[in-house]
Design goal:
heterodimer; A: 80 residues; 5 strands; B: 630 residues; alpha+beta; 6-stranded mixed beta sheet
Chain lengths: 80, 630
């Protein structure tokens, strides 16, 4: 199945070569989770991330469904 | 020094050119800890009610804390406190760098300055000695030049200088204090207070470094924290606060075109990766901090030249001069940042004021005749940079804008107040209440005006399931939806506000020391830190009460001035945003009204006047103020 992933901030360094802008369509197997998808793209996940599936925040182990729109951004604070 | 603080407060009467030293007891330090709470103690004691913020009666306090200068990340910060010329209420600002640790080594825990020098002076503090020196030759100089001259004439390159630039001398109402030519006690216009006192700089140097009560415990904690940085902060050290641009865009919370949108189509041109790849030449740091988040940029030949001495733009600056002014030119934003650091201007209020002026110009409320021909339109790179220069020197339209957007709108009239994005007289920073709802409350109730570093933002508690471990320390156990504004969410905002308030009283960095999940140190480590530093067997309860005490001291100051009631929200906050994930989002007036009442009740503040109740002040050991607030 196909899902779309959008990577903000420094995560865009991990976009696959076929990406358009900061988004890419990715083929994944049934039962793949967001964490699996991140691992397949070698996206680091040790520190805080904002993870959204179809516009809502969700846990990293959420299973993907066909056509899902996944958004990832590093979760850091404001600025002085 | 045999302990982590000196027990000495330096008092300076600028009118009479006199200095003296006060030696408060240990109980004073344990009650206030330092920083903002300590500064407020003197502000409340020594600033007469109704004092002109730009008159000699105002008192400017520079304060360190019982932990400043110890060898651990995130402790070299200083607070400035005075009555604000921008808001008319209490003023407050923190800055990091090497000045705070060096000021501590120079021999004092705080400097309390009153009066007005008959001619420009600077204060030179070295190894416990304090003297006022002539600054006539420094007046009018930009920060980098003044710093070099002071080091040269005192013959020591390691002197640290906290100073005002020409904007402070010109009494720009959002002028700031600058140290290292690139660190700012940015908000509430305290640079103008220093300018009004004819005080150009405070130069410090010393060898009397603080000693922790338990050096081994401190060393263990410092090592643990340093090892924790990568795991908790991730990419933050590498990309700095600029990393936030992407997060805000992703969540629809990047202020754009004077807060009309939460997304900016060219956001990538101004984000942390672009900065890193194109103009960043160095990551700078503060004394003893392993994070190294500060930016240094060097730009030659891209339309604007930017001197690396003046650092580089943080997220706030990128958003306020960038997306909020419709500008995607990183060189221009960096130039505006450099000018603010050279002249001593708060980048948040400066960017916010210019964005307001741009909207007024585009809507015909400000004309080319008003601006001297400056086409102040969104996206006009040259006009934005020129506006910063005009504000810093109060020339042309800059004289009006130097008053800050709220006063400028009042003077201009023509319906321009409708486009203000400010609370309690201070421009909003670059975090949007439409996406993070508790900001709408905190901006309006915060005693020193709109501020984004006064509580934990909604995403840290968003979602379902258990709250993260640090929040459970406050008894906050469950996650709460992003846009929920019920009592549990307000309680989260208030408790974390106490924690941030503690950080500003200990003068620690709120990135390194937070209730946030991504900070290397959390509430448990605060306890270890203060115990190791001072030897006092403190609990989290005692520490949180320091934060609550400081917040109430600020509000009590405002109550004396009749300025304690929460500000109303700007009309813009009720207009739906357009575009991106936040399309159509706006605040609900009734919900916010109820949220204000909930907050005031929980804080122990009068729901009508906003004044802290007598009972609340007495509970916090502030009965001495209660008699003065009625």
């Amino acid at each position: 199945m196909q899902v779309r992933i959008t990577l903000y901030g420094s995560l865009r360094r991990w976009l696959p070569p076929a990406a358009s802008g900061i988004s890419a369509s990715v083929s994944v197997d049934e039962g793949t989770t967001i964490l699996d998808l991140m691992n397949s793209l070698a996206i680091p996940h040790e520190s805080g991330l904002m993870i959204m599936r179809n516009g809502s925040r969700c846990p990293i182990d959420t299973p993907l469904a066909p056509g899902d729109e996944i958004v990832l951004a590093p979760m850091v604070g404001g600025g002085m | 020094m045999e302990r982590s603080y000196h027990g000495k407060i330096l008092h300076v009467d600028l009118t009479g050119g006199r200095t003296w030293v006060e030696t408060p007891p240990e109980s004073f330090y344990r009650k206030y800890m330092g920083g903002s709470a300590l500064g407020l103690y003197y502000a409340l004691k020594e600033i007469p009610v109704g004092a002109d913020p730009l008159g000699p009666d105002n008192v400017l306090v520079l304060s360190l804390s019982v932990v400043t200068g110890l060898p651990i990340s995130g402790q070299s910060r200083a607070t400035a406190t005075a009555k604000s010329p921008l808001t008319g209420a209490i003023g407050d600002g923190q800055a990091g760098g090497f000045w705070p640790a060096e000021a501590k080594a120079a021999g004092y825990d705080a400097i309390v300055m009153k009066g007005r020098a008959p001619k420009p002076v600077y204060l030179w503090i070295h190894d416990g000695q304090a003297e006022l020196r002539d600054a006539s030759h420094l007046w009018g100089k930009i920060t980098g030049e003044a710093e070099a001259l002071i080091r040269q004439e005192l013959g020591d390159k390691r002197i640290e200088v906290l100073q005002i630039g020409p904007a402070g001398e010109q009494l720009v109402r959002f002028a700031c204090l600058i140290n290292m030519a690139n660190r700012a006690n940015g908000r509430t216009g305290l640079g103008a207070v220093m300018g009004s006192k004819n005080l150009k700089a405070v130069a410090v140097r010393g060898k009397d470094r603080p000693r922790a009560a338990d050096p081994e415990a401190l060393q263990r904690l410092a090592k643990w924290g340093a090892q924790n940085i990568d795991r908790t902060m991730g990419t933050f050290p590498l990309y700095g606060t600029a990393e936030t641009v992407g997060l805000q865009q992703a969540s629809g919370g990047l202020p754009t075109y004077n807060f009309r949108q939460g997304v900016f189509d060219r956001f990538q041109d101004i984000d942390g990766v672009t900065m890193y790849d194109t103009i960043l030449v160095k990551r700078d740091t503060c004394f003893a901090c392993a994070v190294r988040c500060k930016r240094v940029v060097d730009i030659q030949g891209k339309g604007f030249e930017v001197d690396p001495l003046y650092g580089g733009p943080e997220y706030e600056t990128l958003a306020m001069f960038g997306s909020n002014c419709g500008i995607a030119d990183l060189a221009a934003i960096s130039k505006a940042n450099e000018l603010c650091n050279k002249y001593g201007l708060d980048t948040i209020s400066c960017g916010g004021t210019i964005a307001w002026a741009m909207e007024c110009f585009e809507k015909g409320l400000l004309t080319a005749e008003d601006t001297g021909g400056l086409e102040l339109r969104f996206g006009n790179v040259e006009a934005m940079v020129e506006a910063v220069k005009l504000i810093a020197t109060r020339q042309g339209i800059g004289d009006l804008l130097a008053e800050g957007s709220v006063r400028a709108a009042r003077k201009l009239g023509r319906g321009s107040e409708r486009f203000l994005v400010a609370a309690r007289g201070q421009e909003y920073p670059a975090h949007m209440p439409a996406t993070k709802r508790t900001l709408g409350v905190i901006y309006s109730v915060n005693p020193f005006g709109a501020d984004h570093m006064s509580h934990e933002h909604d995403p840290e508690i968003e979602g379902e399931g258990p709250a993260h471990e640090r929040l459970t320390r406050f008894g906050i156990l469950n996650r709460i939806p992003m846009h929920d504004m019920g009592p549990d969410k307000i309680r989260f905002a208030l408790y974390t506000q106490y924690m941030y308030s503690l950080a500003d009283s200990l003068d620690v960095c709120q990135f390194v020391w937070g209730p946030a999940s991504w900070s290397p140190f959390g509430p448990d480590e605060y306890i270890e830190f203060v115990r190791a530093a001072t030897g006092w067997p403190v609990s989290l309860f005692e520490l949180i009460k320091v934060g609550e005490r400081r917040l109430n001291m600020m509000q009590a100051f405002n109550a004396r001035e009749g300025l304690a009631a929460p500000d109303t929200l700007p009309p813009r906050m009720f207009e739906p945003l357009s575009g991106g994930p936040s399309d159509g989002w706006a605040l609900d007036p009734e919900e916010m009204k109820q949220a204000f009442r909930t907050y005031l009740s929980m804080a122990g503040w009068d729901v009508e006047t906003g004044a802290p109740t007598r009972g609340k002040l007495e509970e916090l050991g502030l009965g001495w103020i209660a008699g003065r607030t009625g």
